[in-house]
Amino acid sequence: MLVVVVAVLFGEHDRLVSTPFGMLHRFLLGGWYDLVVHASQKIMGKTCGAGLRAVEEEACGRPNPLLQFLYLGLVLGGFHVANVYVLPDLVAEDTGALALASVLPETANPFHPETASWALPSLVSIGLLLFCMASFGDPGVLTEANCAVKRKEYVGDGVVFPVDDKHCRTCALRRPARSKHCSVCGRCVLRFDHHCPWVNNCVGERNLMSFLAFLLVHFALCAFVCSITALHLGARFSATHSGAGYGGLSASARALVWLHFCFARHPIESVCVVMTGVLALMLGAFFAYHARLACLNLTTNEMFKWEQVERWEEEEQKNSGGGRGRRTWAGCASDAWDSATFRGRARRNMYDVGCAGNLAEIFLGRPKRRGRR
Ligand SMILES: [Zn+2]
Ligand SMILES: [Zn+2]
């Protein structure tokens, strides 16, 4: 599972791109579907392949609630499992609540059964509310009414955005810097970050705050469910396997007994631990990446643009005989972990007004700085 998480998050990095992690990354993020299409074409003919490509276009190229339903299924299903299989059996001695008892009062101890019984529904409710806000809230759509004002707020830096506003032929509007036309939704969005299929909405100027909160709360929810379920399983295992018979087994035999206990006797709780653990790692990494971008007043879209600019600069340097030039960085997500690249881009990013100012812009909706030309 850890291999899958590493492959998904870092497989695009140029140090991993040609390793098995890179191959697994490409397979998981679309390669498997190409294989299905290829195999279907061979077996059932070209019409089948074309049909599958049409399904892909419908599912990924147009707004649709497919992943929203999947999200609701996962959250409500996970909540049901925790409610039916974990919470009723929790006792303070089992869950590790005692370890925190000397530090935290009972009501603030998340592992105490009584606290868990209200903390879990609260986290799920807040998560669903944030999901609705990120899904159905206005991401900051560019309209005829706000176009003139926004063009004054967002001026081009002359590097990743031209100083003169671009004209969007689809929306028939002059588009200010930092905005982008979303090909899935068919509209221009201010301070465009990316289109998120999980919320079936663009993430932009007006819903970035709810999107960040959505990621953080779901990270907390998954980590919490994973922890209490794992502690509960561990305690149940210790209670039934503490005899001398188990103690005398070899390490590999103990591992087999443990696996049998988890996946044969408690399969639902075990799958819940694995799934929420993987999701917590991914959501945590995704939140950290977006939080870092927010602190630097950069967007995911701009990270791609900076990557392009750096490639062009490297090419130019090579062509002018400047030697190897600066190295290129493949993969926006992987760049989050490369401090040198991040700092380099932040230094050249004219929209950066310092961490506090950048966060105020997102969370307090403070009027945008006009930028410098
Ligand atoms: Zn447009
Ligand atoms: Zn969109």
Write the layout of secondary structure elements.
Blueprint: H1 2-10, H2 20-44, H3 46-60, H4 66-86, H5 92-95, H6 97-101, H7 113-136, H8 144-153, E1 166-168, E2 173-175, E3 180-182, E4 187-189, E5 194-196, E6 201-203, H9 208-240, H10 244-247, H11 251-265, H12 267-296, H13 300-319, H14 332-335, H15 339-348, H16 355-363
Antiparallel strand pairs: 1-2, 3-4, 5-6
Helix pairs in contact: 1-2, 2-3, 4-7, 7-9, 9-12, 11-12
Bound molecules: zinc ion (2 copies).
The site of one zinc ion (ZN) has 6 residues, from strand 4.
Task: Explain what the structure shows.
The protein has 373 residues and is mostly helical. It has 16 helices and six strands. It binds zinc ion (2 copies). One zinc ion (ZN) binds next to strand 4. One zinc ion is lined by residues 182, 184-185, 195, 202. It is an enzyme of class 2 (transferase). It is a multi-pass membrane protein. One of its GO terms (biological process) is protein targeting to membrane.
